[in-house]
Amino acid sequence: MKNIQTIITGHGKYATGIRSAIELLAGPQDSFKYIDFSEGMSEEGLTKEFNKNINTKLTLIFCDLVGGTPYKVAAKLAFENKNIKVVAGCNLASLLETMFNQYNSLDNYANELVKISKMGTQILELDDISSENEISKDGI
Length: 140
Description:
Main location: cytoplasm
Helix content: 40-55%
InterPro entries: Bacterial_PTS_sugar_comp, PTS_EIIA_man-typ, PTS_EIIA_man-typ_sf, PTS_IIA_man
Largest sheet: 4 strands, parallel
CATH architecture: 3-Layer(aba) Sandwich
Strand order of the largest sheet: 2-1-3-4
Keywords: Cytoplasm, Kinase, Phosphotransferase system, Sugar transport, Transferase, Transport
Subcellular location: Cytoplasm
Order of helices and strands: EHEHEHEHH
GO molecular function: kinase activity
């Protein structure tokens, strides 16, 4: 997705953990940046990291939690810059499914991330499985 930059951020090593999973499953992504909010990092330090990594194109900031420091800092930046959109609480599956698509707006991209996250969140119902053979042994 070359027309929109994605910055993934969160508490601890959330961003680098997501990076590791993405690179294992789909390879490096040029339009993705990863910013951890590490222990001891201040809000000002996180703001500097964001500003260092935000380029001039459309930017979606993907946060781990609504209301956490990474989210609050991202929200302030989005308030000041109409080319920034913030989503929170989405999952790895949503990033993997959207990364190869092209979106004509930040709103479309953000809405698709949320939609896919909701669809991919499920409870394993054991009553629906007739035998162990129906569960894939290969994984992803």
